[in-house]
Structure prediction request, 153 residues.
Amino acid sequence: MIDIGQTAPDFTLPQDGGAEVTLSALRPAPVVLYFYPKDDTPGCTKEAIAFSGMLPEFEAAGARVFGISKDSLAKHDKFRCKHALSVPLLSDEASDVCERFGTWVAKSMYGKNYMGIERSTFLIDREGRVARIWRKVKVPGHAEEVLEAVRAL
Prediction:
């Protein structure tokens, strides 16, 4: 499990639109990684719209923002188009990055147990260390709280 102050695990993941993103290559910009369960579900859509709407403010603060889920690039592209999202989405189909960040967890719904992504956000500072962690995120007001934390770095 990752903790505040630790160096964030480096990774390279494919991004919607065909690019690849390597976390360490983004330095010295602060980076926001928000992990979400599934494209085009109510909570995930609201979260993506919130981060997209505030993306200019994150960029003005010097930060890069990325959403990460296990959905394919094709699903990400469809999700972005349907909701006019501007935040880049990364595909972790093998769940390797989710596991390294501790967001791939056992869940339970209606008595059924399964593995899934816990809605979590990580703020990584200019040196690549984890500055803040939000687990079991509630969507309303979350993007605003993350932006405040970015500005406080």
